[in-house]
Design a protein that fits this description.
328 residues; mainly beta; Methylamine Dehydrogenase, Chain H; four-stranded antiparallel β-sheet; 26 strands; 41% strand; Transducin/WD40 repeat-like superfamily protein; WD_repeat_GAD-1; WD repeat
């Protein structure tokens, strides 16, 4: 089987159910024992492979901000806490068991200069915990800024970054990411540009790298490769730049449904694709290195789930632990 030279685990599948709308956010801790899923049903569900049997029920459900969709979830580097970003202006921090530790302040929307507000003034779009520093997080917002925060101080951000724009105004920042060692941050800007900042002493808002026409439409995802050589971007313009694997949306007249597509990084050739849902788009996906299992979230206005693909011969722990454990 030529697919297996890439060790893609596709032979088996389970689905973590429970959400009543599309699953829009996904985070798996580094050890691969806990999965967080967030949804447009305003809730976050917490799953634990060690504690689950084959019913695959979540052990906790949270509603971080009433009436606000969950947009991204991110574990701290030690996995003792996680960050939850919703469509509200305030990110929240929880401990490993889902107890609220605090929420970041909202800025004063009547202050014109974003640099002078203590926090975001409109809905968040994305957020990610620093890969190494356990006290630092990054958020992006519809207010046109990225902000770096210290988790021990919920009252004000440490740094406000305003992207470079062709003309004055407020253009939303649709997504953000740290590189693997936290020395760079990247933002996807509503004007289609990708901007990268090097975090060094005395740095400011001027981007070190500015890809002006990165995409023709909203940038929906940015990820640095683990060796730091490549930045991947995905957009609603239908293109991927330098991609390894991605989920696809359902096409109106199409018959294929939501897919996962795997590409060879050097040749940029499609090496494998697998259907996840006949009727729903794939929203978030994550390939966990330790478990060698692929997670993909889907859903619509009525239900949402997290599909986990694995192969008993290639994968370890994770889904294999609870599938073996029949309900009592």
């Amino acid at each position: 089987d030529s697919d297996n030279s890439y060790r893609i685990p596709l032979s088996n599948e389970i689905v973590l159910k429970g959400h009543t709308k599309v699953v829009s956010a996904l985070a798996v801790d580094h050890s691969g024992s806990r999965v967080l899923s967030g949804s447009y049903d305003y809730s976050v569900r917490m799953y634990d492979f060690q504690g689950m049997n084959s019913r695959l029920a979540s052990f906790r459900q949270l509603e971080p901000f009433e009436g606000h969709q969950v947009r991204s979830l991110s574990w701290s580097p030690t996995a003792d806490r996680f960050l939850c970003v919703t469509g509200s202006a305030q990110a929240k921090i929880y401990d490993r068991d889902g107890l609220t530790l605090g929420e970041f302040v909202k800025g004063d929307m009547y202050i014109r200069d974003l640099k002078n507000t203590k926090g975001h003034i409109s809905g968040l779009t994305c957020g990610e915990w620093h890969p190494k520093a356990k006290e630092t997080i990054l958020t992006s917002s519809e207010d046109g800024s990225l902000r770096i925060w210290d988790v021990s101080d919920f009252k004000s951000q440490k740094q406000v970054i305003k992207p470079k724009l062709a003309r004055p105004g407020r253009v939303p920042v649709t997504t953000c990411a740290w590189n693997h060692d936290g020395k760079y941050i990247a933002g996807g800007i509503g004007d289609g540009s990708i901007q990268i900042w090097n975090i060094k002493p005395g740095w400011g808002s001027r981007p070190d790298i500015h890809v002006e026409k990165g995409h023709e439409d909203d940038i929906t995802g940015l990820k640095f490769s683990s060796d730091g050589q490549i930045l991947l971007s995905r957009s609603t313009d239908g293109t991927l730049k330098q991609l390894i694997f991605t989920g696809t949306s359902v096409e109106r007249e199409g018959t294929s449904g939501g897919l996962l597509c795997f590409y060879d990084r050097k040749k940029l050739e499609l090496v494998s694709r697998v259907g996840i849902s006949p009727t729903c788009s794939v929203v978030q996906c994550y390939w966990h290195g330790k478990l060698n299992q692929v997670l993909a979230t889907v859903g619509d206005k009525k239900q949402g789930g997290t599909h986990i693909l694995y192969d008993p011969t290639l994968s370890e722990r994770g889904a294999l632990v609870c599938v073996a454990r029949a309900p009592r």
